[in-house]
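Team,

Forwarding the record for the chain on the shared tracking sheet. I've put the sequence and predicted structure together so nobody has to dig through attachments.
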Amino acid sequence: MILNQQPSQTESPAMLDSQTNPVISRQSLGPTWPTMDPFLFCAYHDDAYPAGNAEMGPDASLAGRNIGQDFSRKDGWSMYHGQKVAGFPPHPHRGFETVTLVRKGLIDHSDSLGAIARFGQGDVQWLTAGSGIVHAEMFPLLETTQPNPLELFQVWLNLPAKNKMAKPHFTMLWSQQIPRLIAKDAHGRVTEVVVVAGKLQAVGNPTAAEKSVHPLPPPPDSWAAEVDSDLAIWTLKMAPGASWTLPAASAKDTVRNLYFFKGQSVSLNGQPEREHAAIELQADQDVMLENTGSDEAEFLLLQGQPIAEPVVQHGPFVMNTQAEIVQTLSDYRRTQFGGWAFDPYAPVHGREATRFARHPDGREEKPSAQE
């Protein structure tokens, strides 16, 4: 879904210079990005995989890599925990959600609920681990005569105590269905906002039909499904010279991180930002963003009301107390969270590039139109 917003009567960056600086803090971007409650983790993968081989792994030597634990970025890519195909073979989770935004390339998903999927090219998978799930995330390299670039975010979103033992839930948000706002400034320069979660309330004077953009429904037990969570996950892409007003959050106590990860330079209310960073913002302020560089600028926005509960993490398990972690380890040893029914160990789903999902109840779905 794409909504077009016409030029709005908003303040220019110069007019906003005198306003309160919206930046609370900045942190450099590393392999994983800093987050705040209700978020637990954010990883950005940008891998320049080569052409694929007959097994859908990289058609390149793996010599010099610590196979099974390869995070080297040697030659611009990693195998991660994969042996032949890059990716993350079966591993468990409990007590939180994973939200995976795939911008380039494909992921092959399998899980202990019985669900499988191939998704990418703008799709989002939202997986509520809840009481426990095992899943695999493999990166099939289907192109055999050209590179296979892969770019994605994976965000871990905490669950409140009342939902940590909720039934696991598998959700696909297909790219063609995810709402987008296409906003043009007074000079016709475009900002695109992809609204994965959280209503976007436009600033200025858009038409009535364009005043707000509503996301697809989140999973039922997600913190995002709480009326007052003020949770948002958006990506922003700004043309060179474009300006756009990021609207204030709905609640004063909301926390907001804006990750500037591509582009040369931008400004926030006239304040220059020349280095890629996680920028914590005052969430109760509108912020005029301007791309002051000569190429596109891109951002990820994560915001929400804090859950404000104790967090005890042990690897892939996130609970509220140490006793709950001990119980989780016992449960996993006893049940394997449903076990692993797939052969081979790290399955990929064939050589056809078709994106699809098969849900635990056997229901199958595909994007309305394959890209």
